[in-house]
Fold:
Amino acid sequence: MTGKMQGNTMNYEELVPGYEFPPTSYELSASLVSKYVKAVDGAGDDFVPPLAITACAIATMAGSISLPPGTVAIHASQDLEFFKPVPIGATVESHIRVVQKIARGKMGMLILELEILDRGKEKVQSGKATIALPA
Amino acid sequence: MVKHITQEKINLYAEASGDFNPIHVDESFAVKTPFGGTIAHGMLNLAYVSEMMTAAFGRNWLAGGRLRAKFKEVARPGDTLTISSTVNSIDNTDGVSYANCSFDVRNQKGEVVVAGEATAKFSRGQE
Structure:
């Protein structure tokens, strides 16, 4: 993934409802899509598989959260809506916001809203992700 | 649709998505976690569902598709996943037809790895 994110690593405590991760722009290059399609045993197309777009956005966001050593964050659920096909080679921008934070013992659940826009600022997809991680 | 999970595919998926969480790609790290070894990315397991929907609905999935998924179980290298979907109903709204589907991804033991619902616009030619 060729991406660009401005901002620092966040601790779990700093992720409060309303927090917006710095917008990230990334190019959905032919080589990225080719790797993705090979990884998922997919069929090639002129358009980027929609979940490739989501995966890049979530991975960049997750990479900006600092976790205690030896612990992991787990994707618990995902809602998505796709609005328009994205051609290979396009650059998109992801916007992710914390909408809810739930404590469950030693684990926390972050509920995030995500929106992905194309260069013309048209919505490409939107959704909601629930991530379980050490509180 | 049947898919085989391998560490090679997980590594490739990590490269494509940029998700190098060690639980997916670092066996020495993963073996010390409650999972006892590396696991596939949840979004990789869900990607198979999207691929199936793309095959069924084409561009109507890419523009107008919706899904809600829960990741219920992990998939590991060596697992064989079977991806299934059922059209439960068809709605008509403002002259547009929508297929409402349920789906699941099961491993070789029959355990549900991912489950959820999806909706896609539906053209008469896809009946």
